[in-house]
Each structure stands twice: as structure tokens, then as C-alpha cells.
Predict the 3D structure of the following.
Amino acid sequence: MTVNTHAAKRPAPIREGGVSRSVFVAFNYFLLFLMMLVTLYPLYLTVIVSISNGANVMRGEVGILPVNVTLETYRNIFKGDILLYMRNSVLYTVLGTFVNIVMSCLCAYPLTRKSFCARKFYTAMVTVTLFFSGGMVPMYLAVNTFGLMDSIWALILPGAISTYNMIIIRTAFASLPDSLIESAQLDGANDLTILFRIVIPLSKATLSTMVLFYAVSHWNSYFDAMLYIRTKTKYPLQIHLRNLLVAGIASEELQAAGTGQAFAVTERTMRAATIIVSTLPILIVYPFVQRYFVSGVMIGSVKG
Amino acid sequence: MTASGPIRAYKNSLPNRAIKAIRRDRWLFLIMLLPTAYYVLFCYYPMFGILVAFKNFMPKEGIWGSPWYGLRYMRMIFADSYFWHVFINTIVLNLANLAVTFPAPIIFALLLNEVGSLAYKKTVQTITYLPHFLSVVVIVGMINDMFNSTGIVNTIVKSLGGEQQSFLTSAGWFRPLYIGSNVWTNIGWDSIIYLAALSGVDMQLYEAARIDGAGRWKQTLHVTLPGILPTIVIMLILAMGRIMNVSFQKIWLMMNGGNQQVADVISTYVYQRGIVKSDFSYATGVNLFQSLISLFFVIITNTISRRATETSLW
């Protein structure tokens, strides 16, 4: 699905308006250039802080270029438990996204079958949750009651379906021609077969966008883990990063680095390096999938 | 002959038709089984759990078994001056945030729409959408690094002869930092919807305006803006619905002893009372109050907008 987010070109922008128009155009280009700079600079700064000598960073010398480049910080963080946290995050993201997609498809399909006798009931059941929810504490108590505390399922089941994303998938399913499904029914296929053999394969474009949405939100979330996970070895990467931000947990790992390097690696360079490591998967994938994200927003907005 | 009447009536009776329909749709019901379980367990059961706010909750007794407490917690909440403090904080932070982050992407989309070069436009879009995909922990991490006492911002301030500021731990800087970083994160992404609306504005209207002698600015004012007004209104209604629930996650990461007096909002208060101090009933009551006000805001905005602009969610 390609969606055109570029407004159709208005004819001959420069000619009308004369000088004031050209001044505006130049100013506009410059302003947008500035915006790109402001957007990228914090990320760039984090990169150069992470590869600079900690002592130089502390003296405020790192702002435009890295100073005394060293990879000691990265060597250091990989000595810690970060690989374990990354492994956890990957596991939560993959498993969580899989559950999300399967559950959302299962939920979306019956809601598109016009002949389904309980369609209105189920649609109402789903829509109510868009406007009202139990809130943080009842959810916490529910997870506790179901015995999910400190389990990986506490990060996956409570958000198994994002109703908003599910509605986007439903829109995609509903856009398939009815005749396709009817002819499959005449061939004796049941709805489960139709869903997995016909409807899902034909909705790949939308579903891949949804995979991205779900995956990014799993990778980035820290709140669920903060609520439900107690055991340190089950922490996702974002909780590790959060702990680095809040407390000076890095310091113990720093001491392990030995006194000789104590100044080359500081809490600040460690934090910067951890930020980069945890963001790298997104930064790498982003340029390739950016347009799918955009198309996802557009499908969502036409749902009304 | 006479027997056919009652038999037909039996065949058409309601329970019989229901059984037939269920048998016909059995696969659909089967498919819906897991999603229904999800909605019941993780959406409706927690809604039922709101009852905790009206009970003297004892974990051993469960939600249903705990004794009723009536409105006692509600009265406690309304008498709690700190609750009103975080209530005001929530509204002030949200209104200030809305006033900045709502128009920003609209202006950005309008500026982007004036760019003639498609390649330049695409580059700007690709780059400004990026922060939307960063985790809030990463964003706050970058804020902390830049606005630290030895961070880049203070380095610049000092080199310009200014005095070192404690941005991160002062009450006065919390809102600007929170709102500013929200703009940084979302201005690009939020503009997508307006760019799409802009591409839908009828070209003939521009033509007509030009014939009437309207310049570029007048065209923007009288053609472009009215053209995307329905989108703006819908987005505003949605934003009003969120006016009571600020992002807990970001504030929780940014809050510290220095800025707590302005940073503490309803959701962080619910977390502290409910989860940290296990004051479940009280926190649920606060949460319920917040949800009801949110619902009220959505309904009000929707009604006003339906009357004034004939655009509404329902």
C-alpha cells in the first residue's frame, strides 16, 4: 500500500509573489534544515560521548567532535550483563509480537464477516475498551490474581491485543472482496482455513506494518517490566537503561574496569553507550521500513 | 396438513433459530474464543476491579470478598490536599503541553507543504519522523546528558557568560523540558496526518483564489486552513480525551526531589500510592476519578465540535 503524503504540487511556487516569495522560500528551506539539525544532534552527541574519553566529556570538551576516541566504554558495558538483557528484550519482542499478530488477526476476522450473528455484540465489546479501562491498579491486581507476577507472560498477555491496531487490521480484512471468501466457502473451506490461507496472505502489507508497530512498542517498553518483573535476570534492556539513568548502578561495573581506565570510562559515557546499543536495532531498521510506518498511520486514519 | 403449522412454528422459534445460527457460525465463535478470553481477562476483569475503590480491599479475600466501604475512600480523596495538588499539576502540564504540541505539527506540515523539491521534503520527513521510534528511556537519557550540570547546554550557557543552571532538578525548568522534548519527539510524526489532509485539498480552490487575487498567504488562510479544519478538529477531540492522562512513563523518569512539586501528576501519584505503598483502594479511586473526567472531556469536546463545525467522532 503506497500512500501519498506529499501534497500535490501547487503550480509555479516562485513566480507569484516576487521577491517576498523568494525570501520566504529561502527562509523556509533554512528553517527545515535547522529542524533536521536539531532532530539529529542529540543522537549524534550521544554517539560522540560514547566513544570519547570520559574525562574530556566531564570537562565539557565534547560537543562537536569526539575527543580522545576510545572503545573502552563499549568493551566495558559488554563485560556486564547487557547481553543477557538484550537477549531478554529480543525474546519479549519476538514472542510478544507473534502473540499480538495472531490474536489481532483472530479478533479482526470475525468482525468483518457481515453474516456473523454475534458481530454487533463483539464489536461493542471491543469498542468499549477504547474509551474506558480499569486503570493501573486493577490491572496490577488482575495480573497478580492470574499468577503472572514476575513471569514473561506478564509482559505479553495483558497487551495481547491493541484494539487500535486490531481495528486497522480489520479495515484491511474488510477491504478484501466478499466473493473471494464465499467461493472458498463453496469449496468447503472453514473460516479458520479461510483466515490463514486466504485472508492473512492477502493482507501482508498491512500486517507487516502492524508487526513493526507492535515490535517497536515491545522493544521500547519499560513500564510493564517495572510493574511486573522482580528477578534481575529477566529484565529487558530498557529497565537496565532506566536503572543506569536513575541510580549510579554503573559505578560498580566501573570499579571492575580497574583504576588505570577509571577516567576514560565514566557513568556518563556508559549511559551514552548503552543508549546507542539499545537504539541501534531501531536505527538500523528504520530507513528501510519508514514508509511502512507512514502507511500504517494512514490506514489508521481512514478507519472512521 | 394440520401438523405442518406447529412444526413450522417450532422451526422458526427464537431458540431454534439461535441454535441454527450458532451452528452455522461455529467456526467464527471458535476463532473469537481466544480474543474474547483476552478482553474478558485483561480489559473487563480489571474494569470490574474498579470496585476495589468502594471496598476495604484485603488481598486474601479477593475483590468480591472484601467488605464494602461505600464512598469512604472517595471522601478521603476529595479531602486530600495533595490529591488536588497533583490534579492541578496534571491539568496545567497538559494544557501547556497541548498549547505547544498541538499547533506545532500543523505549522510544520504547512511549511513542509511549501517546499517545492520533493527530495528535500522527503529527507526532512525521514529525519523528523525518527525520534517517534525512540524509547522514552532513551529520550530522557539524552535529556539528562544534555542538560546535566556539565552537559552541553550548561557548557554553552557558561561560555556565553551565563550562570550554570540546574535544569534537571529545578521546578521551573521541568515543564519547558517536558514539553520541549515532546515537540522534538513528535512534531514530525504528528504532521503526517495533516500532510495527508493537505494533499486532499481541492486544487481548483487554489485556482479560484488566485483568480480572485489572493496571494500565497491569503490562499493558506482561506483555502488551506479551512480545507484541513476537519482533521484539526478530530485531532483536537482526541487530544482532549487524553487531557487527564499524561504519559506516566516519561514523567516518572524525569521526576526527582527537585522538581516533584510540579512534576507529580495523577498517574505518578496513583503509582506511588497504589503500587509502591500498596494502598490499592485509594489509588484505584483516584484512577477512576481521572477516567471519568477524561470521558467527560471527550464527550464535551465532541458535542461542542459537532454543534460548531459539524465534525465529530460520533
Notes: Chain A has two domains: 18-80+247-301, 82-232. Residues 1-9, 11-15, 249-253 of chain A have pLDDT under 50 and may be disordered.
